[in-house]
Amino acid sequence: MEYVPIEELLEQSKGSLYKLVIMLARRARQIAGGEKALIEHSNPDKPLRTALEEIRRGHLKIN
Question: Quick one: pLDDT at residue 1?
Answer without folding.
Answer: 54
